[in-house]
Amino acid sequence: MAEAPETTEPQVRLDEIVALCKRRGFIFPSSEIYGGIGSTYDYGHYGVLLRHNLKNEWWRAMIGERDDMVALDSAILQHPKVWEASGHLEGFTDPLVDCRTCGLRFRADKLEDAQCGRKPSKHPGEFSECDLTEAREFNLMFETHVGPVKDTASVAYLRPETAQGIFINFKNVLQFARKKPPFGIAQIGKSFRNEITTGNFIFRTREFEQMEMEYFVPPAEAEKWHSYWMDERMRWYVDLGIRADNLTLRAHGAEELSHYSSATSDIEYLFPMGWSELEGIANRGDFDLKQHAKASGEKLEYFDQEKGEAYVPHVIEPAAGVDRAMLAFIVDAYDAEEVEGRKRTLLRLHPKLAPVKAAVLPLVSRDGMPERAREIYEQVRARVPAEYDEGGSIGKRYRRQDEIGTPWGITIDGQTMEDGTVTLRDRDTLEQERVPAEGLADLLAGKLAEPWRSPKLA
Ligand code: ATP
After folding, report:
1. What are the CA-CA distances from residue 140 to residues 39, 65, 161, 414 (Å)?
2. Ligand 1 in contact with 320 (CB < 6 A)?
3. Stretch 250-263: mean pLDDT
4. Which of 88, 161, 278, 324 best tests ligand 1's pocket when mutated (most atoms within 8 Å of CB)?
5. How much distance in Å is there from the Cα of 145 to the middle of ligand 1?
6. Distance (Å, whole) CA 84 – CA 33
7. Rounded to an integer, what distance in angstroms lies between the CA atom of residue 363 and that of residue 309?
8. From ligand 1's centre to the CA of 321, what distance in Å?
9. Cα separation of 277 and 270, whole Å?
10. Rounded to two decimals, what is the model's pTM?
């Protein structure tokens, strides 16, 4: 196990994050009016916008800025043989223990993270009443039935990862995309796992979204590309504003490796509950293509015209979770400070990730200000995502925008009506400058394109 980096103190509590997400409409517990359903969440307006921006940035890094990548969107339901060949039916398991006394189930390898059902809560096994069973392997795949007949022939699984959809399309992609290794196939989509240990908000849920890319390389180059993708993926988080001190790369020990992997490193983030996996970067070797070739009878290989020989490429996989990344970005951006005797809570999100880039606010709802503000708003939102708000005191409106992470506030006041200037307020520095309303949309679009680093680093 790699040494944990020096920063070990999380800077914000998870309940503060949960409260802000609920209060500002980012994330709600699912089915709340019925008492909720364990570890399942619904995303509200700002949550959807933030997720959208996050996925967009991943997509830009994978597809938009590269020539060696193609996109895919494979189905959630796949032939059951996919999961037999991939090893998931047999090997996608976690060790499970039951407590005969309280009836709760725990992951045997994560007992120190779990809470026993008794009060005051301790770890499972710590009370004399605890009566834990031996560990047994529990498959995390959700089983369902396809069609009207519910028999063994109709069994199907909700995919537990998006990667297999990529491997089973290797031949299709190769034929149409005419790429040669090294090249990648990228996909974003939902995955499902019947996790035993949940909790920690959206860190581990049973339904989640993954951003996965399989990079097919000549076998001799696998190690080189593995380290290339570790660097690239670390850089992606840092460029989007995560402080490098809160990130670390940890190589898996031999006993931890997944059934398909010859080497994996996790990017870990200092979440409120401690250092935990944010993204896995695996060297999957030729395991998946070979398994599917054997099980399907299809040739899943690349024919190298120059050398006149066929080979099975090796695969490097950066696999990230949208929900987990979203939690990391929110945690890293969360800040609370005292301004003129009042507490200010804010999300110092990278402007590219911020759900709303600019808020247009008339100082008061009279004297022609709302009308002028709406005109300016129409111009601004044609260039950058913006919001118009005229309800309540200006201070209250700013507080709301700070908490959803809006980087720029534009106030239309008496002076605007006289000289056509507005105040432009910076979320992070709280500096206000007067700028002409004319050209404001261009000014904001320019600011959005500028490189950005977290003001917490200053
Ligand atoms: P963990 O050890 O935390 O269970 P894993 O190693 O099983 O994760 P992978 O199979 O490597 O996870 O999946 C890649 C990424 O998908 C993870 O790094 C994480 O960001 C995300 N992910 C996996 N399982 C979940 C889940 N149950 N909820 C939310 N995100 C998940």
Report:
1. 15, 35, 11, 62
2. yes
3. 84
4. 324
5. 25
6. 39
7. 72
8. 6
9. 9
10. 0.94
Distance CA 213, CA 71 (A): 9
Beta strands 41-43 and 93-98, pairing class = unpaired
pLDDT tens-digit readout, 173-203: 999 998 999 999 999 999 999 998 778 999 9
Q: Where are the alpha helices (DSSP H) in 346-393?
A: 369-381
Question: For ligand 1, is residue 277 a contact (CB within 6 Å)?
Answer: yes
Q: What is the DSSP string of 270-282?
A: EETTEEEEEEEEE
Please tell me whether residue 193 adopts helix, strand or coil conformation. coil
Measured distance CA(370)–CA(364) in Å, rounded: 8
What is the average pLDDT value for the chain, to the nearest integer? 94
Distance of CA 332 to CAs 13, 180, 255, 266, 278, Å? 12, 39, 31, 18, 13
DSSP state of 61: I
Instruction: Indicate whether 419 pLDDT > 80.
Output: yes
Between the CA of 323 and the centroid of ligand 1 the distance, in Å, is: 10
**Cis before 455? omega within 30:** no
Q: What is the pLDDT of residue 1?
A: 36
And the tokens for 317? Answer: 């996989």
Count the helices and strands in the chain (H runs, E runs): 13, 23
Q: Is residue 428 scored above 70 in pLDDT?
A: yes
**What does the block give as tokens for 289?**
């293509």
Select the more confidently predicted residue: 77 or 102: 77
